[in-house]
Amino acid sequence: MDFFKLKQHHSTTTTEIRAGFTTFLTMLYIVPVNAMIMSNTGMPMDALLTATALITIIATILNGLWSNTPVAMSVGMGINAYFTFGLVLGMKMPWQSALGVVFISGMIFVLLSLTPFRVWIIHSIPNDLRRAISAGIGTFIAFIGLKEMGIVVDNPATLVGLGELSDPTTLLGVIGLFVVLILYSLRIKGAFILAILITSLVAWGMDLATLPSALIALPSSIGPIFMQLDILAALKLSLLPVIITFLITDMFDTLGTLAGVGFRAKLFGKEDKKLERTLEADAAATVMGSLLGVSTTTSFIESASGVEEGGRTGLTAVVTGLLFILTLFMLPLFKAIPPNAIYPILVMVGVLMFGELAHINFEDTAILVATFFIVLLMPLTYSITTGLAFGFISYLLIKLIKREFEDINLGISLLAGISLLVFIL
Q1: 27 falls in which pLDDT band (50, 70, 90)?
Q2: How is the chain split into domains, by residue range?
Q3: Of 423, 382, 375, which Cα lies nearest the Cα of 129?
Q4: Rounded CA separation 260/278 (Å)
Q5: Which of 61, 132, 193, 419 is close enough to 371 for a disulfide, judged by CB 3.0 to 4.6 Å?
Q6: Is the pLDDT of residue 260 over 60?
Q7: pLDDT band at 289, cuts 50/70/90?
Q8: Sign of torsion, CA 333 140 81 63?
Q9: Residue 322 scores a pLDDT above 80
Q10: In whole angstroms, what is the distance from residue 386 CA to residue 154 CA?
Q11: Is the dihedral of CA 324, 329, 335, 336 positive or negative?
């Protein structure tokens, strides 16, 4: 195991295997959750389950071998909801074209990963705005989760209202939400997948869902979605803001995860290339994912669970990736999971992302206003792009009004200018 330099990282094979297994348990939920979300586009659920498992295996093992970091990767939460409910259902875009958008944003990310531009654009955006973006995406996906569960419904008088909680299906979602809140609050490992399992058992016991026909089966073909992306359809000036949104979201999501996971465990030194290589693996995985038929791939914060177990090298990621091979054969079980056992997880992920607001300096008027628009408009307009646009434009406008020119740079000005395209086009 000298390839992973275990001694240099003060780790052992046993520790790395245990850490990899822990990460696997904490992010196992992504396979059924992502497939459930993206199937709303009309893409076949069976193929999505297989594709999600495959990109998780490929991306995680690739990162472990290439960067030697214990960071697992899979289809990003939040951006997959934007792909589904923002682009395909909201903008009426064919899912093939939406995959083309993912491919283009991924290719740009790959190219930027090889240049100083990536670091420049990231440093151009204040930390507080990055946190606001994370919180805004959190409110967006939580709103989607509550809507799909039937807790939030259409109301002609007030636009939205409270759903019928006595409805058995909605009640199941409420139960699932309480279960995941309790398990996560108690810091139980694998809280998400345990919550899905417990809620599913309740649904099967109440005859609200059909029991799985079998526990294991051969993987389904990804033929219906493999290489079905339409790149030419995505090459439109009007879609530039959407491509930029995917690019920025992926970069910030990855860097936020790596900051939380990597720097806490002192994984990224100033002299080594681990951070750069992890970003490169992340970018390459997004491109590969679009070919397989899934949305943007990113580094997962659940990797922190493996780090807490002592994982310090790429061996942890490799073990996690290998364990995900098991999910390829769990199709009957995943298909039997009722939607309202899945969507409470979306709400909980939103809650965790919303927590970034605690670290924002609201004494800065520009940050206060930009954060307000980002967090409020992402869910209300069903668009991450619109929330980002209002945020960047309002930030720049207030800084100009207050003549705080020292806080304005070319990067933030460029992003604000691109944001204007959202409204012009």
Answers
A1: confident
A2: 2-353, 360-425
A3: 375
A4: 14
A5: 132
A6: no
A7: very high
A8: negative
A9: yes
A10: 21
A11: negative
